[in-house]
Design goal:
The complex is a heterodimer of chains A (112) and B (110).
Chain A lengths: L3 E4 L2 E5 L4 E7 L5 E7 L5 E8 L4 E4 L2 E6 L4 E6 L8 E7 L9 E2 L3 E6 L1
Chain B lengths: L3 E4 L2 E4 L5 E7 L5 E7 L5 E9 L2 E4 L6 E3 L9 E3 L8 E9 L2 E4 L3 E5 L1
Parallel strand pairs in B: 2-11
Antiparallel strand pairs in B: 1-3, 3-8, 4-5, 4-9, 5-6, 7-8, 9-10, 9-11
The chains are: A mainly beta (112), B mainly beta (110).
Chain lengths: 112, 110
């Protein structure tokens, strides 16, 4: 069974707009991570947020974490065509800091 | 610094054939893992290793074997390929929770 589930499954926006995608998970976690996958390529780590953090920024990325709701969101501001990719959240369950469980991803398309 | 290197990038097998997918990392990471990704889905863990000589099963281990004789290498063996194993395979290594992925092997079993 999948620990993390992203929502929406697909998102299409215009360049310059903000993109928000959400992730829900089932069990308690130490941290939650977001990855990007360009078509036909491997996954690239974007950002990690720890369970005691509520918000984290990295460039145009903003991640929030609500452990009471077991949910996280990834906001990409001022999107670019190059942001077109699939985005996955991943969580290592407690007691297994490096064994990640991935959701099925959000396919983001940024139209020029 | 090459990171995680997977070979081959593409492979076509006939049903029943066996093969080994190679994975090597040069970051001295203790933890390595293999995932498969099917169309429209996330990654599912096949096998993982927490160090040389130690391996364990993930979510979908059937039909695959692994070994870890060195820190650097973590090969994945398909014993008797089946069409259901057509997928993209990713090797990964990690340290303190940050995972580095290889670029993947696209395997087709006909």
């Amino acid at each position: 069974s999948q620990q993390g589930e992203e929502d929406p499954q697909a998102l299409s926006i215009q360049e310059g707009e903000n993109a928000t995608m959400n992730c829900s998970y089932k069990t308690s976690i130490n941290n939650l991570q977001w990855y990007r996958q360009n078509s036909g390529r491997g996954l690239v780590h974007l950002i990690l947020i720890r369970s005691n953090e509520r918000e984290k920024h990295s460039g145009r990325l903003r991640v929030t974490l609500d452990t009471s709701k077991k949910s996280s969101s990834l906001l990409i501001t001022a999107s670019r065509a190059a942001d077109t990719a699939s985005y996955f959240c991943a969580t290592p369950p407690l007691g297994s800091a490096r064994q990640l469980t991935f959701g099925s991803g959000t396919q983001l398309t940024v139209l020029p | 610094n090459a990171g995680v290197t997977q070979t081959p990038k593409f492979q076509v097998l006939k049903t029943g054939q066996s093969m080994t997918l190679q994975c090597a990392q040069d970051m001295n990471h203790e933890y390595m893992s293999w995932y498969r990704q099917d169309p429209g889905m996330g990654l599912r863990l096949i096998h993982y290793s927490v160090g040389a000589g130690i391996t364990d099963q993930g979510e979908v281990p059937n039909g695959y074997n692994v070994s870890r004789s060195t820190t650097e290498d973590f090969p994945l063996r398909l014993l008797s390929a089946a069409p259901s194993q057509t997928s993209v395979y990713f090797c990964a290594s990690s340290y303190v929770g940050l995972v580095t992925f290889g670029s993947g092997t696209r395997l087709t079993v006909v």
